[in-house]
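lol forgot to send this yesterday, sorry. struct tokens for the thing we talked abt
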């Protein structure tokens, strides 16, 4: 086997996966770690760990979820090594990591403080909403990735959105 993965024909699916999911992985790590440079290091470490199992990639049902699970575990391991609780980044900071398309909300003059609204949710519910709406994952993918049953994913997201709507209605003055 060649030292350079670009010269190994078996590595093409792996390189395609990393090219496809890399920006999402960086966004996820930036959300969890709240330090973009450190998030890059964590994603790089996840790529190295994933490479050790790249031969199984073609047999996986959802390689994207598999790789993002590695990134998430790397973030959790980072916090364990630091012996402190994770503090996630503001969604604005995580969203600043480019994926390719321009952010349609860049030109909004008055923003609602989403971070303050999200702070009323559990970290797990915040994470579910970030995957669903920030990363545009399907409910099935979220269930598969988290191991949470699909009906539970649906109900947790529904309840979290209900809490956010209620808080938003109290936070914004009516235009009567």
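and heres what i got for the seq, position by position
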């Amino acid at each position: 086997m060649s030292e350079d993965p670009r010269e190994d024909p078996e590595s093409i699916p792996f390189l395609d996966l990393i090219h496809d999911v890399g920006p999402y992985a960086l966004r996820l790590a930036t959300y969890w770690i709240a330090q973009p440079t450190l998030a890059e290091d964590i994603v790089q470490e996840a790529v190295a760990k994933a490479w050790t199992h790249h031969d199984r990639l073609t047999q996986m049902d959802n390689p994207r979820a598999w790789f993002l699970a590695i990134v998430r575990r790397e973030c959790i391991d980072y916090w364990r090594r630091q012996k402190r609780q994770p503090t996630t980044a503001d969604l604005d900071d995580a969203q600043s990591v480019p994926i390719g398309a321009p952010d349609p909300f860049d030109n909004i003059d008055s923003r609602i403080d989403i971070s303050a609204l999200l702070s009323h949710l559990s970290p797990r519910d915040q994470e579910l909403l970030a995957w669903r709406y920030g990363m545009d994952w399907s409910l099935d993918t979220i269930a598969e990735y988290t191991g949470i049953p699909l009906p539970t994913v649906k109900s947790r997201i529904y309840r979290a959105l209900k809490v956010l709507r209620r808080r938003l209605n109290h936070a914004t003055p009516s235009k009567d």
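The chain has two domains: 1-104, 112-176. anyway ping me if u want another try
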